[in-house]
Structures are given as C-alpha cells and as structure tokens.
Amino acid sequence: MTRKRRRLYLVVALVSVLGIATALVLTAFQDSLVYFYSPSDIAEKSPGVDRRFRLGGLVKEGSVQKEAGGTTAFVVTDLRAEVPVRYTGLLPDLFREGQGVVTQGKLDARGQFIAQEVLAKHDEKYMPPEVADALKKSGEWRPEAAGAGG
Amino acid sequence: MIAEAGHYALVLALGLALIQATLPLIGAWRGIDPWVRLAGPAAIGQTVMLALAFAALTHAYVVSDFSVYNVFQNSHSTKPMIYKISGVWGNHEGSMLLWVLILALFGAAVALFGANLPDRLKARVLSIQGLIGIGFLLFILLTSNPFARIDPAPLDGRGLNPILQDPGLAAHPPFLYLGYVGFSVAFSFAVAALIEGRVDAAWARWVRPWALAAWTFLTVGIALGSYWAYYELGWGGWWFWDPVENASFMPWLAGTALIHSAIVVEKRDALKSWTILLAILAFSLSLLGTFLVRSGVLTSVHAFATDPARGVFILGFLILVIGGSLTLYAIRAPMLKAGGLFAPISREGALVLNNLLLATATATVLLGTLYPLLLDALTGEKVTVGPPFFNSTFLPLMTPLVMAMVVGPLLAWKRGDLPGALGRLKFVAALAAIVGLVVFWQAGGAVFPALGIALAIWLIVAAPAELVERAGLFRVPMATALRRLRGLPRATWGSAIAHLGVGLTVLGIVGSEAWTVEHQQVMRPGDVATVGPVKYRFDGVEEVVGPNYAARRGKFMVNDAQGNEIGLMTPEARRFFAPPMETTEAAIRSSAAGDLYAVLGEADGRGGYLTRLYSKPLIIWIWAGALVMSLGGVLSLTDRRHRVGAPTKARAPAPPAKTTPENASGAQA
Chain B closest CA to A48's CA: distance in Å? Predict the structure, then answer.
C-alpha cells in the first residue's frame, strides 16, 4: 500500500460519495421546493391548481368563520389582494384575526386556498419575514400594526 | 446600582479579554515568558467578571427590577421563580451574555486543568479564546446591552412567552450553548496548532476531551429542544428540519466527525490536516448557527431578534473568524506531515468513511438551510426547503453510515479483516434479519419499517456483542471474561454505549414514523374514538386555575382494545394573563412501547370540542437513545487517558508502523 494508492482510494471514495450526494440533492430539489406567494402574487401570477405552495399575509379582521366538523374559513390579505382559505383541524395557538399567518396547501378550481397546514408561529412579537416583505411590497407595512413593538 | 455594576463588569471583562487575546500571543511568538504566563490569570479574571455580570442580571430578574429594560420586556412579577431565573437567558441579550460567559468558562477550564499543556500552546489557545470573546463582548456592549435602563420604571413587566415557561426549555439553551461554545476550544487548539505548525498524537489527546465534552452537551441540548417541541407545541412532531434546528444539528454532525477523526490522529498520526479542518468547521457552524438564529434572517419559529445591526455585526464577525482561520489553514496545513499508512479496509478506513458520510450529510443540510437565503438574496424569490428535501438526501447518506458503524470497531488498525469481522457479526446479522422478517410479516408487507427495525436491531445488539467479543465471553472461563470486561478501557465502553444509543434512536424514529396513528375529530362528552391500539373516551371539560393562567381541562379515559383501563388523560387549553396568550398543553402517557398523546382544541359551539388524539409507538426511544449517546460520551470522558489534566505527561508520538496491543484492542469514543 503506497501513499499514491491510498490517495487514489480516497479520491475514488470521495468522488463517489459526493456524486451520490449531488444526485440526491438534485432530485430532492425538484419536488421539495415550496414557493411562497402573497395574495398579490397570486392575483398576478396565478400559480395554477396543482402546485403546492405557501400563502402568507394577515388574517383579515372579521373573516374567521368556524364551520361544523372542525373546518375554519378565513381570508388572508396583504391589504391589496385577498385569498379565501379553508382549513380543517386544530389551529395554532397564535392564530387570530389581524395577525400574520403562513399556510401551506393548494388552490382549488374556485380560487379557494385549501390549506393542509397552518404554520405555528409561537411569539406574539414575531412576524414571518415573508409576510413582512409582502406587506412592504404592497406598501402597507406598519410595524406597530404588525405587533412588532409588542 | 447592581445593574450598573453588571454593566461595568462587562466592560472590565472586555478589557481582560483584550489582554488575553494579545499579550500571550505576542509573548509566545517573541519568547517573552511573563506575557505567556498572563494568559491563565486573564482568562480566569474574565470569567469572574462575566460571572458577576451574569449574577447582576439574574439578581435584576429575581427581584423583578423593571427599571432594567430587559427585565421589563421579558419578566413579570407573578411568574414562578424558576422561570424568572430561566428568563435571564430566554431572550436575546441575556442569551448572548450566557454565550460569552460559557466561552469564558471554557477558557478558564483550559487555564486551570491544562497543567500538562506546553506553556506556549496553552498561551496561544487562550489567546484565540480571548479573540472570540472580544467579538462577542463587543457585540453585547454595542448592540445588545442587557443592562439598559428605562425611566420611569414600569410597574410590571411584559412577561415571558408562556410556551417558553417550561423546565425542559429552561435547560435547553444552557446545554446547547455548552455544546456550541465547547467547540471553540477545539477551534482554538486547531488554530494554535496551525500557528505552531505542529500536530501530533499528544495534540489530539489534548483536544479530544474538549471536543467530546462539547459533543456530549450538544447531544443533550438538541434532545431537550426536540423533546420540548414534542410535548409543548402540541403537534406531536419532534423534528421539523426547521433552519434553527439545522443550525444546532450541523455542528453536531461536524463534531461527531471530529471526535472520530481525532482518534485516528491520536492512534495513528494520520488525517491530521483533515482533523484540524473539522475542528475549524465545527465551531464555524456553531457561529453560523448563532448568526442564523440571532439575526432573524430565517423564516423560523425561533426568530426573536430582528435587528439588522446585530445581523451585520455577527455576519462581519463570522466572515472574520471563518475566513481568517480558513486562510491560516490554507497557508499552514500543507506543512503538516502526513502520517501512518493504512489499507482501505481498516479501522482508519472505516473512520474515513464515517467522516466522508458525515461531512457530506452536513453539506446537504447546510445547502438545504442556506439555499432559500441565497435564492432570496439573488432573485428575490421566496422558497422553503421542507422536510422532504432533508429526508430524501440525509437519510440515504446516514443509512450506510449506520450499517458500517457496527463493523468499524471490529476492524484492526492499519489492515483489517472484513470477512473476519462480518463472521463475528453473523449472529447479530441473523437476529436483525429474523426481527426484520417478523416485522415485515406482522406489518403486512411494509418494506421500510422492516428494514428500519432490522437496522436498529443490528446496532442495538452489536454494541454489547462487541464488548462480549472483546472480553472473550463464552470462550474463556467466566471469571476471566468478566475481569477482561471490567478491564476494557472506559473509552471502549463509551463508544459501544454511544453506538447503542444511536440504535435506540433509530428504533424510535422508525417505529414512530411507521406506525403513528393520528385522529382529529369533534367529540361530545361520552364519545369514544379508537386510535390504533387504544380507545379514548371523552368525559367532558372542566375549568381549572393555575399560578399565572386559567385553563380548560379535557378529560379522556383511555382503555386498551380489551377494555382494560389504562388511565385518565387531561390535556389543557391554557390562557395566560401576562402576556395574554393561549397555549395548548398536550396530555402524554409515555411508555417503552409507545406514547399516547391527546390535545384539546376549541369548542365548536354545539357542545362538542375539537380534539386530536395520537398513538405513537416507540417514540420515547428517540430521546432515550440521545441520552444513552451522551452517557457514552461521559463514560469516554472518564477514561484516564482522556481525563483533562491527567497526571501523565503526553508520551512522544508512537512509532507509526508498529501495532501495539493497545492499538489492536483499540479504544474509541
């Protein structure tokens, strides 16, 4: 076993592991990247009915309705555009009207967003960065309204 | 007054850190002995000052001094005492103070217990620690002063986020920081070695206990955080591949690689420059983690600081530390002499494979964590890289590692006998295959759980089998075998137990992922829900009052399939007064076979309540396994060869080509 041989083995092992890892990463990227859209983005880009994506914004005041069977209907707004959302299940503790929210799911044929997940945000001072950005873009960013000052 | 004293102590600590970072380094370079000897006292002095500052902040919390802005923001007079104290580090400023205190404590520990270190190496190590300390002290004093006052003082504080009021979470940051910051010692040793241009077996023997201690703490810290998420967030999940979790997981992966590669340096004088690189990377990833969490650049449930000035400061510091150390590495590493040769099939070869897979896995996690940030910075598009990415990259890389980690310890150094090692594992392999087949048959032909459980059994049984093998149990008389078993180095025991812990964690992950049953429904009093092997009967709700909250408590009577009573479970929906906030408190019944988990939701207005009920087989083993891993770490640390400041002088590097009996029996952690 010479030094050269050992180096050769090492390089072969390295290249094969890295090759496998790269292949894994590339295939995984294809189907696990989830895009984030604000209600305005949806109005402009209309992402279609089959793609899973994240929708974020504020829960519109007065829009939350509880239905039978644990389904909640509410409206997500960036104060420029709005999207109706339906979600069945327990909502995170901090879900309330006027607060930031991020949901993940798909649009249905009627333009309703069917959320599979409403993301738990566990800090009353916290505004999801995407939501803050979306509000800044729509020109409606008011830190105090977002509860950033507590 | 006490708060001002704390602030003053912080400034003094900065002064001492400046001395610690400069004079000993120059002294070691120019051969000025008095300056070299300054390192220890400066490190201890800095620690005392920081302990005073930390005590001052704790005092402000304990007596609820709301004229201190930090206390006002994060505490409340009605909060239970333990959470007043844990509130000290439950916020940005206080947690940074804890960070720098732990950094100084590690420095002082090197100064106190490093009596067998050469003076100049010790001086250089402490100087590097001092340099890191300067960065963080400046950060605290310039952007995050925990002692800032407000005038007039408010009557009461805003309170600590109730979900952070939890014993597990009170202990989570200190352990995590002990891990993060512990890698700073390995980093300082690496940089000092690069400055000296010399790495040998003795160096590895000095570094390993520190890296091992850091790794052990980090293991406990991550497990605590994961367990907290499981029982407190009420979603039954234990790992979300959240960027902040990844931030703590990456140093753990790099650290795991480090404690293994350092063995090769110690035993065989090989892989030296790689080990140095790992030591640099482990701490760099800790710093990156701190940056990711503290700058609030991530979409994450943890972002509690969203101040750009802080982000820019830490980013600059990060570039300076990582860039500086990697530049030094690029210049000096080629000077390190390559050490002993080994065949691909050997203990070294197995450890190289371990390092290769761990480093690649770290890289994929890093990519998945940073990709959204890069894409956002470059194109403005916002994406999330979710659990599917990590599951489909990380798991395929870990599977061969987990399979190989059973074989590795049975290979000899230099040139191993793979058929021989596999032959000694044939009973273990047979057992794993049988269990796998039984699971396959029982679970109705499910392939993934069967393979996963077989893998877990492979690990769990192999660990004791390795010890039995080494002791020659059943081949030599019982008394001899027992004596040999007792005589095995603690590090060998530690390694076997840590590997056993990995097996238990794999068992928990596979079992809970494959067989969790979740039911979500509206229930009225008297309704029964069948969830997996048990039935939950809903017996209505009652109102209860806690120390700083009121709660609605649901009552669930749980029976097994035969109708035998298992017990009453009482999940709560709590309403805290300060700050006003609602939380759900899941009810959990844990056992070795599996957890029952119940969550009470809102009333539906028609006499029913939304409920979520789970059965989660084997899940407790995820954290039990992590504890067993850290137990293995502790056991290895008590090995007399690794004992910090063991009263033996480091022996000269072993002759590279000879396999001594100690090498052949091989100890590792």
Answer: 17
pLDDT, tens only, B321-341 = 999 999 999 998 888 877 777
Query: Which tokens sit at B433?
Result: 């295959």
Distance (Å, whole) CA B572 – CA B550: 10
B296 min Cα distance to partner chain A (Å):
8
CB-nearest partner of B360 from A18, A27, A128: A18
Cα-based torsion angle of the residue sequence B220, B221, B223, B229 in order, rounded to the nearest 10 degrees:
160
Domain boundaries, chain A: 1-33, 35-137
Range B470-478 average pLDDT: 80
Query: How many residue pairs bridge chain A and chain B with CB atoms within 8 Å of each other?
Result: 136
Distance CA B209, CA B211 (A): 6
This prediction's pTM: 0.89
Cβ contact, residue pair A28, B388, below 8 Å: yes
From B303, B356, B382, residue closest to A35, measured CB to CB: B382
Separation in Å, CA B569 to CA B262, B360, B535: 48, 44, 12
- Closest partner residue to A28 (CB to CB) among B389, B579, B581 is B389
> Is the Cβ pair B299, A14 closer than 8 Å?
no
Residue B222 located in a structural domain: yes
Kindly state whether residues B139 and B173 are assigned to the same domain.
no
ipTM, 2 dp: 0.78
A1 → closest Cβ in B233, B304, B343? B343
Q: Residue A26, Cα to own-chain centre: how many angstroms? A: 21
Q: How close, in Å, is residue A95 to chain B by CA atoms?
A: 10
Is B123 in contact with B16 (CB distance < 8 Å)? Answer: no
pLDDT tens, residue by residue, A47-79: 777 788 888 888 888 999 888 777 889 999 888
Contacts of B610 in chain A (CB under 8 A): 70, 89-90
The amino acid at A10: L
The CATH number for A35-137, chosen from 2.40.50.140, 3.40.50.2300, 1.10.3720.10, 3.10.180.10, is 2.40.50.140
